[in-house]
Amino acid sequence: GHSVANKANMPSPTSSRNDNIPSADSQCKDDAIRTSLRICCYGSSSKSTQKRYLAAAYSLGYELGIRGHSCVNGGGASGCMGSMNQGCLDSNGSVIGVIHKMFVFEERGSNWLEGCHEVFQQNERRSDKRGNKAKLIITDGVGLQERKRMLVEGADAIVVLPGGTGTFDELWEMACAKQIGIVSMPIVCVNIDGYYDAFFQILQRAKEDNFLYKDPGEILHFEKSSEEAIDYIEKELVKQKSGLEAEGDGEKEPTAKIKKRGPSFMSQLYTRMSSSLSSVSDEESYSQPSTFSYLVTFASGAFVYSLISRRES
């Protein structure tokens, strides 16, 4: 594989402290999938993110670029997002940033791209001489629902780096979608120094207490490094493709896109959630701890959709 820790002047990511978390054996990239994938990447945007996490983020962006995959992330200039964008830039990879306008626009109208990584600033100003493939998508709305929808739409897999409450929100929302069956794409946590041990333990406890009908490993997968996370995703999508071909359905792509009936169900759900938020004043919407209510709405609607789909099939 490609070692990029020295290139980033950062220490190599440390391994997980919990060896009981399921992990795929490392596999040579030559044996992996050869098509370009669209990988949604979650992670911190904090300027105080520790170097070991920044190193893993840089490695993720660099590896995705080297392997010809697209990196879709929140477009931030700092934290794990900033480092993965820099990695993509350094490997001349394809990167798509999805950022809410509140993070890039200033009231004075100057330096409107200050909130996003330089790879997008260069692209927007048409001054980048390195030919990197960067695209910036700016979303609107009272909350972040549209941004989250755009991040995962069309994704083949999700990689989750260490982060804070925003990353947790994104991770649990997609874990809910995976548990219910709305998506089947691989969701892989890069478990540096055991950062996501507690998440696995929560899922394990929920399974033991009969709150889940899927095993924890079917919902989330955990790897010790960014490179191993990409290896796992490539192998899983090869398996999905092989399974489809075995069923005589080889024309389907081995991607795990959101199931659709007319407009995307998740798109409709996000739209309804956003509409509900619009009726609340700005002061209320930002002062109330409403993430849990969003997830309850999402889970309830998705569960009903799952039941209807099964009944009709």
TrEMBL record:
Residues 9-26 have a biased composition (Polar residues). One of its GO terms (biological process) is cytokinin biosynthetic process. Transmembrane segments: none annotated. Coiled coil: none annotated. One of its GO terms (cellular component) is cytosol. Residues 1-27 are annotated as: Disordered. GO terms for molecular function: hydrolase activity, hydrolyzing N-glycosyl compounds. PANTHER family: LOG FAMILY PROTEIN YJL055W. This is Cytokinin riboside 5'-monophosphate phosphoribohydrolase.
